[in-house]
Every structure is written in C-alpha cells, then in structure tokens.
User: Which sequence fits this backbone?
C-alpha cells in the first residue's frame, strides 16, 4: 500500500506491505536510519519520533496509520546552520555515551520542552521514563534537558 | 540544414510529449524542495577540546555530536546492494542430541538463498577461555539459546518464515538446572566427565586455626541472580566476500584483533583474508566480547555470494548472548572484640551456564576479590564453576566483583552491627593502605581505599547522620 | 570495594601508532573499539598530551583489522591503562623524531626539548621554540624523517601458584566507596533510593566528565542488580526475555547522585591514570542492602531485593519478634 507522509518538512511516500511499522518505513524505505530499533515492541523508546505533535514509539505505529501525518525525526532536529539547543546541551554535558538511546531520548525531550518549557527535574524524569538508557544513569541527560530548556526560554545563551 | 534540424526537433518534441502522456506515473510523486536530513557542518567543537594540556580537560566527544544528530552508523544502519538477511533457529530443548536436521523445505522457498547447519562449519568451536562452545550446535544442544541452523533470505520476514520450515529431530537428554545439583557426581553431564569445569583456590596463612581462635565467628550464605547486559543495540553483524576470497565483516564485537583470530580458526582461512571492522557499538558491558554470529553470517554470505546481515532480536539478546554468573557464596569470618578480621573462609559456586565463555576470568577475579579490600592474614577461598543447561554465563561488567562485593560488604555491616562498631570505623580499621598485602600476597601500590571511605562519608554527612 | 585493571595474569597487550601531520595535527591508530564509554576521546587526549597538542588536533581511527594495530579489546577496564600506555610510548617515539629534527634548528640537543602548547620548545626557556607544524614539515621534507611512532604495552604480572593462588595477577587496582540513603515502605516492601554518594579512585582522570558518566551509568546497573533485574527460568526456558518483564532502571528509578573522584596518581599508568569502566557497578548493591538493613532491620542475602522479598523479610522479622516477646 502507498503511504504518504511529510517527514521533517518534506513530502515522501513509499509502497509498503500493510503490516509495515512506521519505524521500518522510515529506516528502510526512506533511508532515515537515525531512529533506532532496540526491541520492536515499544519497551525501550529508541524508536521515538514525533507524529502530528505527539511523541510516539514508531515501532508500535503501522505506517498506514501515519498516512497524511507530519513527522519529525532526529534528522530534522537541527537546521543547516545550528544545532537544536537540546543537541548542543547533550554534547556539552557529555549526556550520550554509546548514543543508541540518543535519537529517541532527544525526541522525547523535544516533545516535553515544546509543551512544558520550564519543567521540574521530576517532570523531565517522567517525560523520559519511556526511553531506556543503559550507559549513562540518566543524570547528565536530565541536566542537559534542563539546561536546554533555559536556552529555549532565553534565560541563558546557547 | 536548419530546416532539417527543426523538423527533427519538432518530431523529437512530439515523441517526448506522446510518451509522457502515455505514462504519467513515470513522473516523480513530489519534487523534493526541502531536505529531510539537515545538519550544520561548520560549528566549532567544544572549547575544552581546543585547550592544552589535553589531560584533565572535560573535552566533549566528537562522536557525541554525531550521536545527537542521529548520524552515528551502527551496524543495523548499514546496508549494501543485494544484501540478504539472516535469522537463526534456536533449540527446542535445554539438553538434547540432534538426530537429524532437514533444511530442504526452507531451501526450496523462493527468496531463500542459503542455509547453514553446524556440520558445515569448518571448525565448529570457540571460546575465550577454552573452545567448548559451538558456532551452531551439532550434535548436542546444551541450552535453549543454542543455534542449530541459520538461513539467509531477501527479507527478514522471509528468513523467519524459512526457519519454520526447517525440521529438526531431537532426542531429549536429561537436563540439570541447579548448580548445586550439577556439582554432584551423579548429575547429568553436560560436557565431558564432570560438570565442574574450572576451580580456583586461594590460600594464605592457616584459616582453620585462626577461625578456631577467633572470639566471634560470623557465617552467612549470599546468592545473586542472573542478569543481562541489555545493551540498547542488539548484536549485529554483516559479512561480504570479494572475488579474491577475502571476507569483510562488520561487527559489534568489542575486541577485533582476537575476534579475527577466532573467525580465522572457525572458518579455517588465513587471518590476512579477513577484515574485521568494529563499528561504534551501542553498548557492550561484556556481552559482545566474543564471536557469536560472525562465522555464521560469513558462511551464509559465502554460500549465497551476497552480503548478509544478521541482527539479534531483543529476545535473542536475552537468550542467546551471555549473561552474568549467579554466585552462591558462603562466607565464614572470624573477628576479635575490636572488629579486626582475623580469618575469612569463602566458598563460591558459580552457575556456569551451558558453556565456559569468560568464566575463567570471572572465577579468577571473583576469587581474588572475594575477601574484600581488607588486611586479612588467614584466607581460604575455594571457587567452582559448574555447567548447567541454561543460558551461557560470561563477561559482565565486574567479572564476579559485584557479586562478591555484595557478600563481603553485607557481612562487614553485620559484624559492625553485632559488635556495636560504626560501619565506617570497622572498614577504616581493616582496610588496605599503601603497601598492604592482597590475598595473593601482592604488595599493593597507589591504594586510595581509606581516602574514598573518608571522602564519601564526608560528602554524605555520615558522622552527622549517625549522631 | 577494590577492582583490578587488566586481565588476570594473562598477557593482554595493546599496540598503537601515532602519526603527526605537516600542519601539526595528528592521527592515532588503535585497535580498540568504542563501545560508548568514550575510549576514543580519552585515548585521543592521551596522545595529544604527549605531543603537546589539543584534544581536537588528534583524529582517532579505531576498529579495523586491516588498518589498526593489535589490541586485546575493550574489556576488563583496561583501555585507559593498557592502550593508554601504548599510546604514550608510540607518541613519544613520534615526538623523538620531532625533537631530533628541531634540535639543530634551536641549537640544543634533543633531550633539552619538550612539546607543549603546539610548539617544540627548549626546557626552561620556552621563548625559544618552533611551532610543531614547522618541525614536522622540516622533518619530513628536509631531513627525510616522517614523524611516526608505534609501540605496545602489557601490564607486568606474575602467575598465581596453582595450589595457593599466591602471585601478582594485576599491575594495579582501583578503589571506591558508595553510600546509599533509602526509604523502605514497610507495608509493601518497596525500596526507594533517595540518594547515592560515590567516591571513586581512577588515578588521574584523563577526562573527568567521562569518568563521572561512567560512575553514574555503573550505579544505574548496580541499582538494577540490587532491586529489579532478574532473568527467570522455568525448565531451562527464560520466561522474561523482553524489556516489559525484565525490569531495569528508567529515569524515574534513579536517585540523586553525588559523584566525586579521589585525588590519586598511579605512576604506572598514562599520566597517572588507572581506569573506571567496571568498578563503577560493583559496590552499589551492597550499599543499598546495607541501607535497607539500616532502615527496617532486615538483611537481604539474596538479590534482587524486590518488594516481595523485602516484604517477606519484614514479616519474618515481625513474626520472630512477636515469638520472642510472647515466648
């Protein structure tokens, strides 16, 4: 079946079998391999993308269901001149180690800051609770998200 | 001349128009104006990276930027033209003899280009300590995670369907799951004559006499469980051969020099014919420190003459890669009235799983570290690793240290409580200092134990909290 | 706790190659693999320090058996120490070639020079110096000696006696203390970790930010080991081989962490460094179990200390106290 989506601002489409997940379509049909496959059943969060303004586990969403939607993946977070404040702060704090949870973690964090620009530490922990990380213990990730929030609210410079 | 060209031009234009009118679907669905993949190229690196001297700087990681952009290429992100996908069939039994394997039905399926069984692997054994583990089990399977056959097909879905067509006939053998049962002489044997496949003794002083002379003797048994590394990236491998009979393997292995040696051995080809590329790995923690799928993928690629990729599912990451050894630890410690440790006797039984893997290192480190970082003149440690028909236990962050630390530190607090001594004081009293002797009589240098105890206690506010 | 660096007795060498470019940047070839711990960054810093360059000047190439030299692997917390020492030796060889080329230009002997702040300068008289880039160019195109060095390192050990285990299995060890503060709900057995303080010895921290990351990550594995994680078997079959039923720490399970490093210097390590990868995950479970005892007086001797197990222990304790009181 033909699925048409808008990914990071660009209209793309692919002809995929009906049981294809959005994750598989992004990675295999559209060559957007930034979003990762960690478990394929919605437990680990490495496949997190933003669909019509809501963060979802793309391994649990059928591609067909995403037809006509607007999707943001990790590849669309930066622009050609600057990193997103989240990407900047993650780098500054050394928040990612092996990096595999990174794209999913960043998308969940973006979703949080887009809706709640001044979250408490507990709210950050809560928003990221669906993204597993084995390397970092989450500490520097949380520090980076809080800092990125400050930048986005223009309290500190990037 | 010009007139003739004009006619040809008009004719050509007409032909193009007609063709276009005939097949509208040959036109692109959307003309890309935006780029779905954007990133800045010229941003400066973090300031700490630019300073000298370099040691001690909180330098940001260059791979950190790539991680944040989603640009890091893990193995599953790499594809090649004509690449096939491999899947592995795992055993139905915890302990069994394979009577027959029939892959013919799978081979007949369109889109399935190669199958593999253990009998086809040139040297079907590997292992970092000794080579007791098969690449694909044949003829004996020793745990449910043992692979018995593999297929390579044009899609992952097809490969999984092909696995279902493989017929394996098993003759079940009696399994043993409890290490304390497996250690007995009359238990079912998993390899060879005994299930105890490695043991270690550390002996210093006269522990029996010292225990007899101790005013207080504490005894307790501690046990730990099986845990998995859970690297976020499941194990993955790609293999591809060129016309010179040279194979390139991309792998999530943590050690490629020795990995190449292992692959050379199992495939019976010279090391110079193998290129092993270690990509950025999405977490290892010990589970990716020995070869696993590399020979399988290489052989499937050789048979099919196409690049082959195999990625573990999360399920396989649990059942078919290695896990941490459960320890059963018996600690008997003699102390005097002031809380000074006079003697420590320890017995460790390691649940060694179906194959040896990194058990040699685990039992070695576990035994040496088991008495704890304390000055003890009389020490006796005996440790045994026992085969059981469960998932292979191997290297996992600490090689036995987390298990024994749980035991010796728990007992330290128990002793402190019983004798009414502050847990910090008792550790400072017994702890290593510069030039202390280890349980193996090594003179220790660069010892910072008491400093870490004092600093941690200060930061925690231990004295105020205890008051 | 204490933990060794490197393999038990067995040789576990690492080799490295360092090449300095004509613009004063450098390339490091190492056979190790980046598994997320930041090894490539740290190893680059070690090479940079030896050559007097900044971290960003060194490009690290790793993990290709066709290109990179032998390395026993990213195992046993050995990378900073063993591969790091190999890199120091390799970089020193490349640096020696630069000293040989620069010495006549500065009118001194090679052993009077040092590499610092991207310059080759005279010891004790830094204003007499040449930028490293110029020295490399001179060495390559005038003297005819490209600045390249290869070396290896293996920690010296002594085999353990087979009967008594006595010997010197490792060249160095690290030490650490972790203290946990917990709250136990004595009606459900749920353990909530409020705070963990960790002070670790890693020798000189080559990159303190990365060591902190390792400690925080190691503690999260320790927390899982202590309270949550367990592979359950039934007749040899794993019944929870998935992340729904194999419980491991999420961001909500991790407490506030306070991390510190002991000031220590190991002369056998590269610039005094030892290592950090595994020791970080070692003492956490013990600290939490001891804290549980302190909170509710029950000693858990079997991990993990799930709510059920803690609750059972609390009930047993209450029962035995009742019996003691009435008996």
Assistant:
């Amino acid at each position: 079946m033909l699925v048409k989506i808008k990914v990071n601002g660009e209209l793309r489409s692919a002809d995929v079998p009906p049981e294809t997940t959005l994750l598989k379509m992004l990675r295999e049909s559209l060559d957007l391999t930034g979003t990762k496959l960690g478990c394929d059943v919605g437990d680990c969060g490495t496949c997190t993308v933003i669909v019509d303004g809501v963060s979802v586990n793309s391994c649990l969403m059928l591609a067909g269901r995403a037809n006509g939607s607007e999707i943001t993946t990790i590849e669309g977070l930066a622009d050609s001149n600057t990193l997103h404040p989240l990407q900047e702060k993650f780098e500054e704090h050394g928040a990612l180690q092996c990096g595999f949870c990174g794209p999913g973690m960043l998308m969940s964090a973006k979703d949080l800051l887009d809706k709640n620009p001044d979250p408490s530490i507990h709210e950050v922990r809560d928003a990221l609770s669906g993204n597993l990380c084995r390397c970092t213990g989450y500490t520097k990730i949380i520090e980076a998200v809080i800092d990125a929030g400050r930048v986005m609210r223009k309290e500190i410079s990037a | 001349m010009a007139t003739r060209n004009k006619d040809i031009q008009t004719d050509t234009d007409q032909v193009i128009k007609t063709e276009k009118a005939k097949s509208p679907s040959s036109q692109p669905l959307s003309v890309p104006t935006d780029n779905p993949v954007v990133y800045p190229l010229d941003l400066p690196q973090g300031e700490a990276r630019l300073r000298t001297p370099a040691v001690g700087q909180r330098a940001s990681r260059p791979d950190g930027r790539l991680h944040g952009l989603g640009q890091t290429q893990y193995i599953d992100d790499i594809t090649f033209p004509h690449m096939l996908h491999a899947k592995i069939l795992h055993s139905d039994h915890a302990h069994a003899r394979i009577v027959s394997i029939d892959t013919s039905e799978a081979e007949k399926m369109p889109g399935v280009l190669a199958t593999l069984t253990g009998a086809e692997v040139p040297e079907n054994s590997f292992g970092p300590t000794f080579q007791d583990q098969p690449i694909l089990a044949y003829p004996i399977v020793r745990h449910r995670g043992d692979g018995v056959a593999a297929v390579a097909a044009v899609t992952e879905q097809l490969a999984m369907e092909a696995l279902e067509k493989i017929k394996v006939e098993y003759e079940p053998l009696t399994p043993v799951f409890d290490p304390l049962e497996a250690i007995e002489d009359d238990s079912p044997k998993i390899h060879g004559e005994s299930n105890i496949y490695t043991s270690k003794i550390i002996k210093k002083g006269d522990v029996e006499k010292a225990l007899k002379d101790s005013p207080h003797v504490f005894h307790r048994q501690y046990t730990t469980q099986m845990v998995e590394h859970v690297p976020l990236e499941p194990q993955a491998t790609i293999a591809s051969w060129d016309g010179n009979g040279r194979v390139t393997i991309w792998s999530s292995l943590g050690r490629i020099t020795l990995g190449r040696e292992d692959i050379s051995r199992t495939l019976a080809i010279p090391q110079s014919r193998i290129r092993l590329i270690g990509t950025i790995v999405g977490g290892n923690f010990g589970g990716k420190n020995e070869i696993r799928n590399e020979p399988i993928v290489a052989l499937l690629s050789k048979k099919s003459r196409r690049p082959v990729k195999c990625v573990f599912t999360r399920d396989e990451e649990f059942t078919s890669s290695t896990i941490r050894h459960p320890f059963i630890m018996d600690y008997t410690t003699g102390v005097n009235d002031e809380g000074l440790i006079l003697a420590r006797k320890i017995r460790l039984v390691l649940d060694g799983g179906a194959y040896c893997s990194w058990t040699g290192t685990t039992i070695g480190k576990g035994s040496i570290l088991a008495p704890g970082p304390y000055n003890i003149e009389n020490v006796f440690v005996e440790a045994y690793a026992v085969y059981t028909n469960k998932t292979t236990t191997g290297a996992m962050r600490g090689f036995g240290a987390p298990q024994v630390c749980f035991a010796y530190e728990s007992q330290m607090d128990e002793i402190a409580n019983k004798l009414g001594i502050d847990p910090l004081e008792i550790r400072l009293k017994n702890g290593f200092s510069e030039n202390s002797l280890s349980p193996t009589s090594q003179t220790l240098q660069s010892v910072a134990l008491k400093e870490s105890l004092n600093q941690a206690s200060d930061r925690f506010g231990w004295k105020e909290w205890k008051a | 706790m204490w933990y060794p660096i490197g393999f038990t007795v067995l040789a576990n060498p690492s080799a490295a190659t360092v090449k300095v470019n004509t613009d004063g940047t450098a390339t490091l070839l190492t056979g190790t693999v980046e598994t997320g711990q930041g090894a490539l960054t740290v190893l680059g810093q070690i090479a940079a320090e030896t050559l007097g360059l900044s971290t960003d000047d060194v490009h690290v190439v790793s993990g290709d058996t066709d290109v990179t030299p032998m390395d026993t692997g990213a195992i046993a917390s050995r990378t900073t120490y063993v591969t790091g020492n190999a890199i120091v030796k390799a970089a020193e060889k490349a640096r020696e070639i630069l000293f040989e080329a620069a010495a006549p230009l500065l009118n001194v002997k090679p052993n009077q020079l040092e590499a610092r702040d991207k310059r080759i300068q005279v010891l004790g008289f830094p204003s007499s110096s040449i930028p490293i880039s110029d020295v490399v160019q001179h060495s390559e195109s005038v003297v005819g000696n490209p600045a390249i060095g290869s070396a290896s390192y293996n920690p010296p050990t002594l085999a353990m006696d087979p009967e008594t285990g006595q010997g010197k299995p490792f060249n160095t060890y690290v030490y650490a203390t972790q203290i946990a503060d917990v709250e136990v709900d004595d009606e459900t057995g749920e353990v909530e970790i409020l705070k963990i303080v960790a002070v670790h010895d890693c020798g000189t921290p080559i990159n303190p930010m990365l060591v902190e990351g390792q400690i925080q990550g190691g503690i999260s594995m320790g927390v899982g080991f202590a309270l949550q994680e367990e592979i359950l078997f039934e007749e040899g079959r794993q019944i929870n081989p998935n992340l729904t039923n194999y419980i491991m720490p999420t961001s909500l399970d991790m407490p506030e962490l306070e991390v510190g490093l002991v000031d220590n210097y190991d002369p056998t390590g590269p610039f005094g460094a030892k290592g950090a990868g595994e020791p970080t995950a070692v003492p956490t479970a013990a600290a939490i179990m001891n804290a549980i005892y302190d909170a509710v007086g029950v000693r858990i001797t079997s991990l993990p200390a799930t709510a059920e197990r803690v609750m059972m222990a609390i009930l047993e304790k209450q029962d035995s106290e009742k019996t003691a009181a009435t008996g």
Observations:
- Residues 339 and 418 of chain B are 10 Å apart (CA to CA).
- The domain at 179-228+323-412 of chain B is CATH 3.30.365.10 (Aldehyde Oxidoreductase; domain 4).
